[in-house]
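Thread amino acids onto this structure.
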């Protein structure tokens, strides 16, 4: 089918009954007829008794516009077919407008369409902004060129930024690699130094062991010889004592021995060699004194590692786990016990007296609160600011498997904590309390937790000195939460 027959084959329904042109954004109304959306909206612009159809005059009480997507697709195919015929035959430049066969000389900016002079004067485009095609082309080309230049400038900026970011990333990677090599080198050197010092100390201990063995052998040999001499002398005297009286006395005189009697006995001088062990014991004691400084240095180094290595975390108090008497700040940063309270006792001990609501009434009645954040792996630490007055305790808590409670804080929990009670510092667990040596009350306490090793340590955060560290425990794969207790007047954490 040639191009004119293809155009003639398009149905009349492809044109809007109002503007008599191809549908633009076609919609159907209550009666089923189709119109351009803008055309039917202009017809219904003024209020009337109803909404009549411009074609069949059927009136509806309510406005109803339904998009006709199928018709829109058909119209798009028709427009493409028309453009293809014009381009293929070269008739577009000659015939121009497909409806009026006039040259397309102007461009409607509102509709984005090329128009002929007749279309320009039509009712549809009369109020629109219409410009000559070359002018519009120059305007749009200028806009596109400006847009292209802006895009190119943005692309160049992004490229420069990308290159700069890549350089910075490589520099960061190089710095991290330098740090990695530096750490490896330092620890490798430290390990070699410690191994060398360890070999030196073990060699000195080996020399002491050889000295002890040599002295022991010489001493035992000397004592054995003296024992043999004494055994021979004992045997000789025993044989003389078994001789007859006349022979015994004769042999005694012939040998120049004095007559038997108290005065003639005890003439043997016992020759004992001097013992070298006191001197060796002095050497061992001197060796221990020399290494005490090294032991203190290594212990201090381990304390520094426990203080510095854990990742610092922010702890927020959980009001749902707080004792009813406690006052938790809205942001979960502090907890106090308002009012004047009875004399404090340690968690888990006997109550202060009958009818006294003290921490000793049981694990569930201690005025404590938990942190929201739980730890299930790795190394973590957090700093706690404590009041110089009152009594307090802090540490970590693990809920005992199978425990539970109907009220907050009533569950059975296993504790690892330290605190101040009536001027005495204690290390506290669920089963025991350990008095700590007199220490100066810290302003900030750092709690360091190593989950895998099961270690809980407490430091004076300002002095970076260890207060107390619990032996390795097992958290049994359960979540461990920060735990805090305040008790007594002026207590605040």
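Threaded sequence (493 positions):
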């Amino acid at each position: 089918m040639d191009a004119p027959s293809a155009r003639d084959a398009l149905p009349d329904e492809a044109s809007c009954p109002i503007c008599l042109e191809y549908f633009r954004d076609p919609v159907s109304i209550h009666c089923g007829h189709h119109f351009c959306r803008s055309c039917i909206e202009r017809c219904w612009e003024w209020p009337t008794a109803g909404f009549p159809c411009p074609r069949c005059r059927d009136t509806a009480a309510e406005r109803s516009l339904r998009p006709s997507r199928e018709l829109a697709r058909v119209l798009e195919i028709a427009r493409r077919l028309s453009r293809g015929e014009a381009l293929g035959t070269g008739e577009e430049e000659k015939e121009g407008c497909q409806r009026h066969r006039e040259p397309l000389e102007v461009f409607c900016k509102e509709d984005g369409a090329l128009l002929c002079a007749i279309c320009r004067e039509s009712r549809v485009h009369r109020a629109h902004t219409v410009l000559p095609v070359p002018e519009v082309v120059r305007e749009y080309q200028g806009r596109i060129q400006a847009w292209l230049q802006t895009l190119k400038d943005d692309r160049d900026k992004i490229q420069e930024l990308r290159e700069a970011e890549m350089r910075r990333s490589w520099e960061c990677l190089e710095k991290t690699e330098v740090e990695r090599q530096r750490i490896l080198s330092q620890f490798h050197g430290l390990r070699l130094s410690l191994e060398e010092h360890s070999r030196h100390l073990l060699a000195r201990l080996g020399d002491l062991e050889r000295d002890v063995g040599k002295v022991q052998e010489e001493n035992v040999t000397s004592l054995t010889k003296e024992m043999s001499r004494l055994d021979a002398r004992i045997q000789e005297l025993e044989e003389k004592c078994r001789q007859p009286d006349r022979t015994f006395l004769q042999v005694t005189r012939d040998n120049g021995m004095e007559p038997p009697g108290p005065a003639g006995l005890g003439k043997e001088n016992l020759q004992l060699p001097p013992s070298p062990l006191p001197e060796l014991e002095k050497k061992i004691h001197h060796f221990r004194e020399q290494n005490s400084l090294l032991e203190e240095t290594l212990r201090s180094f381990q304390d520094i590692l426990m203080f510095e290595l854990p990742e610092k975390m922010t702890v927020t108090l959980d009001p749902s786990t707080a004792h009813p008497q406690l006052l938790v700040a809205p942001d979960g940063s502090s907890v106090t016990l308002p009012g004047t309270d009875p004399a404090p006792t340690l968690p888990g001990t006997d109550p202060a007296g009958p009818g006294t609501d003290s921490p000793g009434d049981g694990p569930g009645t201690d005025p404590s609160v938990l942190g929201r954040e739980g730890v299930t792996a790795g190394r973590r630490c957090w700093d706690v600011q404590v009041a110089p007055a009152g009594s307090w305790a802090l540490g970590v808590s693990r809920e005992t498997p199978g425990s539970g409670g109907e009220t907050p804080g009533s569950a059975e929990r296993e504790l690892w904590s330290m605190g101040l009670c009536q001027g005495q510092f204690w290390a506290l667990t669920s089963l025991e309390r350990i008095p700590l040596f007199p220490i100066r009350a810290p302003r900030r306490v750092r709690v360091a937790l190593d989950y895998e090793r099961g270690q809980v340590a407490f430091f004076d955060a300002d002095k970076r000195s260890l207060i107390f560290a619990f032996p390795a425990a097992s958290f049994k794969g359960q979540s461990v939460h920060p735990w805090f207790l305040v008790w007594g007047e002026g207590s605040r954490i």
